[in-house]
Structure formats: structure tokens, C-alpha cells
Hints:
4 strands; elongated; four-stranded antiparallel sheet; alpha+beta; Alpha-Beta Plaits
Amino acid sequence: MFAKPKAHAVEIATQGLGVALAGLLTWHVLLGLLVVPAVLLVHRWSLRETVKVEQAFDEETGLWSEAAWRIQAQQKLYDARGHVALVIIDPDGSGSDRQILDAIASGLTPADLLGRYSTRQIVVLIAVGRREAGLFLSTGFRSDLARAGVCAPLGCATTADGELEGLLIEAMSDLMARRAAAGVHHTW
């Protein structure tokens, strides 16, 4: 049911101990002191979870790492009320990540989920109204990249079924087909 049950357990434990502490403090101050060590342990557990989350970012681009992106993408697919488009962009040269992100920024909103896929690809999950919107979206991103002078093949897939793996496979297949049509063959 929850994407991160541990995070919810930490929150529930913190809230429960807070209520217990408040109740015991109003009854007798010395009894309230008995709960303080438990509050400190839960706080420490919470800090450890925060450190794990902070390791979820790609150092080079600041995007979500693949593992963190997958968790959020699965939740976004679960919550989606319509179609979503997945765009995979494969940077050709090193250092072009920032250029790609700058080039496609005009087509993104704060609700769009960007991250890393595999070792190099940049993935974007975007909620779209209809299945056909993915085609228009990918065409817009391709023209943005071309206008910025960035050579980066792009694959796109659109779905409403909420399955992340199928969407990733379809988008990667589109990317590889476009690379093959352009005469570029890469193995990852």
C-alpha cells in the first residue's frame, strides 16, 4: 500500500511518542522523562532514513538516482488518473547532461519526474491527458535539443496502465529503433 513503509513507521512512532510524552508530562513531569530516551532513538532512526534519501541523488546532475526515481515513478503511475509519458534521453557525449536539461527545461513542469536510468540515460515521467500527447511531447523535446545543438537520441512511450517496467521497455525500444534508423549502434 505505501511506497516506503519504513518512512511511515518512523512517522507513526514519532507521533505516538509525542502524544505519550505530552500525556505523561501533564500527568507527572518525572513520568514524562521516561519517554525521552525512546523519542531520541526514534529521532536517530529518522535521521538515518534522511541520510538514505540524500544518497538518492546523482552527484553529476542532481537528478534522482535510478533506484529513487523508480520508487517515485511507480507511485506517480499508481496515482495517475490518465496517461503518462516516459521519455528516455541518451546523452552522446560526456558533459552534455547539463545541456540536455537546459534544452528541455521549457517543456517541463515542477510535477514532472526527472531521474537517471541505467548509467547514463536521463528519464522524464510526465502526466499527459491522452495517449497521443506523448508523440507531441517527444517531438517538442527533439526540436528543443536540436535548437540547442545537442545530439541526444530520445525514446518515448505512453501508457495508462500503471506498469513501470513495460513503459521503460517500450521507451527504450523506441530509443534503440531511432538510433538504428540513424545508423548509430550502441551497447549499454
